[in-house]
Amino acid sequence: MRLGRASGWISLAAAGIVLVAGAAGAQDKRPPASAAEIQLSFAPLVERAAPAVVNIYTRKVVRTRQFSPLFDDPFFRRFFGDDFGLGRPRERVQNSLGSGVIVDPDGIIVTNHHVVEGADEITVVLNDRREFEAEIVGSDERTDLAVLRLDGTGGEGLPSLEFRDSDDLEVGDLVLAIGNPFGVGQTVTSGIVSALARTQVGVSDLGFFIQTDAAINPGNSGGALIGMDGRLVGVNTAIFSNSGGSHGIGFAIPANMVRAVIAGIVQGGRLVRPWLGVSGQAVTAEIAASLRLERPGGVLISELHPGSPVAEAGVRPGDVVLAIGDREVANAQALRYRVATLSIGETATLRLWRKGRELEIEVSLIAPPEDPPRDTTELRGQNPLAGAVVVNVSPALAEELGLDDDRPGVMVLETLRGGTGRRLGFRPGDRVLEVNGVTVRSVRELRETLAAENRRWRIAIERSGRVINWVFEG
């Protein structure tokens, strides 16, 4: 089984049709009561929703070098190296396709980040076959979402979809997926919500996906997942598949996350998410029993960042975050998702479990601070880290790079070609902990420690949660 990208709500009552299984309130939902109800058609719903779903075609110029076949010979490369040769520059055009959803009549479109990533040209084709050039307003790799703006609409109002509160979805609700699978043209498939709050999908680090059995295939990425009231409940983004085709397990980004990303990009110019400054782990059955919780669930706080809004509000290590507002959180991924759908400047209510009782704490949501300043520095000199670019870790940097760990410290941002650091195996993301027994807390301290002349270097780094101790001679 492998995970693949899936490249690619209107009221039925208004159309004179009632689908009781998709009514707005959970208390009104029931299975079909007669053969006549089973025979009802989705056609009026599709007729009104489909014009807001578009096809997206991208062009990207890929530059490569063409070498002699001799350079594929391992014996030849042994003497001249992998990068030797005077290959001629060669350009080729790479085309790709996907889908998108018009969410504003002024020509604002949401699609997947991977659909438009690196594109030199973007063409959007509407359901009525009109074509427009589009520009990227902003893109967010962490959620795999991008916002486009159409050029040349002449101020004409375009068909668009309204957002629905995706938290109102329930497993079993009917949904339709609209997109452009395999480039065959706009296609509609139906299914149900198979599961909610899927966090172990691996598409993005802010994943909290709607799972559906509505057929989603390559080309559907960025397309619409709509509910039975005709509003947008999600943006289709990925599938589980052995063959690249649909096996009935598709994933969509919830509308609440989509709406937050669009608001941040369009209104603020760039996306900045709220910052809590906590880290923790999911509450297992064993942890729940030790804390006298009735059932597993929530996030056990292990660390608080100095000066974080939750620390100032009175949250302590050992507290369990059970919910934000009226929405429960099952694990750390769910907590990140809930925070990411809120706005800076708002106040969030955290429901906590502390010493056998529940309590609520109000937390002000702020932007991640640039503290300490990053002090980006290329290390030089006769030392093992020469040629490495290092930076102070701050909450702002962690948010920018999509890091889970925003603890203060020094991180390798990149290793320059030809530098000692790259040759000795240092990698971007490594945290420098100690040099010759001296704890490294800032770029300035690291620079000063490396300035000393030594023939023997002992450097401790942290990589992917493991501490590695290296000794270098000479």
Task: Kindly report the name of the CATH homologous superfamily of the largest domain.
Answer: Trypsin-like serine proteases
What is the overall shape? globular
What is the CATH C level class of the largest domain, in words?
Mainly Beta
How many H/I helices? 11
Low-confidence stretches: 7-26
**CATH topology of the largest domain, which one?**
Thrombin, subunit H
* Ends distance: 48 Å
Total separate domains: 4
Protein structure class: alpha+beta
Q: Strand-residue fraction?
A: 35-45%
For the record, the CATH architecture of the largest domain stands as: Beta Barrel
Tell me the helix content: 10-25%
Rounded to an integer, what's the Rg over CA atoms? 26 Å
Mean pLDDT reading: 83
> Based on DSSP secondary structure assignment, what is the total number of beta strands?
26
| Major pleated sheet | 7 strands, antiparallel
Structure in a nutshell:
This protein is an alpha+beta fold and 474 residues long. It is 16% helix and 36% strand.
